[in-house]
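Hi U.,

Before I forget, here's the chain from the pilot set. I'm dumping it here mostly so it's searchable later in email.
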Amino acid sequence: MSEPDEQPTVDRARAAARAELDKVFGEVLPQASSDERAPEPAESNPDAWYLDNRPPHHDR
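Structure:
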């Protein structure tokens, strides 16, 4: 286990690594990945995706 006085050093190292990634890739990397977040609720209508994404010539 790390010593209490080593924690600020670890935090600074993580912040520096994050800053380097942000400099190269921009700030598009999420802090939490999709498997760490709560799942979104399922649609009540199974055809919702198809209705939302139907082409304009299929409008009712």
